[in-house]
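Collaborator request, handled under Task 6.
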Amino acid sequence: MATHKSAVKTHRQELGRRARNRHHRTRLRTEVKRIRLALETGDAEAAQGLLRGTLSLIDHTVKLGAIHHNSAARAKSRLTRAVNKLT
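Structure tokens returned to the collaborator:
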């Protein structure tokens, strides 16, 4: 455990950041699961409708720093290709 005053504060800040990042990553994973479920069931309209919101959420998560921009680009590319392949 941290003993210096500055180290204690840094630890407290890290806990908050980790909680925020976890929240954003979890929300993103849930949206990706929803769009993948629509793809698996073959529901092109639902997948197309979810795609725009999911891509926006990916961009927002990158902006917040919760995921790396290359990971986001890869995810966006794969989701878009999958939806386009279905439609």
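The cover message to the collaborator said: "The chain has a mean pLDDT of 95. The chain has one domain: 5-86. Please let us know whether this matches your experimental observations."
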